[in-house]
């Protein structure tokens, strides 16, 4: 069961969203509704919902500023912007504030559910939410290629241009095979591009990223009336995306920097030397030796350090059980977590939690 907070100054929109949630009360429960930006902050801090569906234009404080405040305190809260197409000019701000997805008014019941579920799925893959949506393809009853989109987004962090290009072309092949369904998939395409823009922020310099003008593509897709317009704009976005990425990678530093960056972005997932070797197209022994030669520490040492650093953060700043923290940090069992934690820090998790309580004045 996931908790949802809705924020919109229009009562008709709030009532519509409530009616959708009520029909799916076995999965989602409404914990509050807000009519302005200040109110949604107050309720979010009190109720700590899993999901907030947020209008952008609200009285007293805009939805974007309210979202920024909430994300600063609760970074795992999913915030979905309930937007009109003209509001995509705020897309770069939404990316900067690490918001999660868009809805396009008026969104259908299916679009609302799919967007919430897919957002939960992405959090689940990152270990930031616990639930039943890690395998989203079993949950969403449509043909949209969520698994392919996951591969495309993950390949961005590898900075392997051939892999990125391969996944991009597969995605575009799918869209071309579903031409007459593209109006139905419009919101999915918008959120795919939005997710790609979020990922690019982490790997591309700002000056290169700004050349893509992703917010303009989002607005054009949301306004397109026919499937062939949606396809043409989407294909143009991906052409620009590949062009800019290929230019950036030509200036790329040592590949072990890319391995390190991939681990930093994905340490909460199951990572092995063989998997990294496959992603980066190197022999496992060579990759291991080269990484140690360049960095002065092994891949496992770096991976464990990132996981333990995040575990320390969660121990000090959350009430999660140790077993849940160990899983969120990428450990397969709590015993392994405890051994690794003691090896790296010299302390037990309970000691760190106690220190956090003292630091926070508890």
Blueprint of the fold:
Blueprint: E1 2-7, H1 11-23, E2 28-34, H2 37-47, E3 51-55, H3 63-73, E4 78-83, H4 91-96, E5 101-104, H5 109-125, H6 146-158, H7 161-177, H8 186-203, H9 206-209, H10 214-223, H11 227-249, H12 255-266, H13 273-280, H14 284-295, H15 299-317, H16 322-328, H17 334-345, H18 349-359
Parallel strand pairs: 1-2, 1-3, 3-4, 4-5
Helix pairs in contact: 2-3, 6-7, 6-8, 7-11, 8-10, 10-11, 15-18
Quote the average pLDDT.
86
How many helical stretches?
A: 18
Helix content: 55-70%
Cross-sheet strand order for the largest sheet: 2-1-3-4-5
Portion in strands:
5-15%
> Given the C-alpha coordinates, what overall shape results?
globular
- Structural class of the secondary elements? alpha/beta
Q: Terminal Cα separation, in Å? A: 29 Å
Number of strands: 5
What is the H/E string? EHEHEHEHEHHHHHHHHHHHHHH
C-alpha Rg (nearest Å): 21 Å
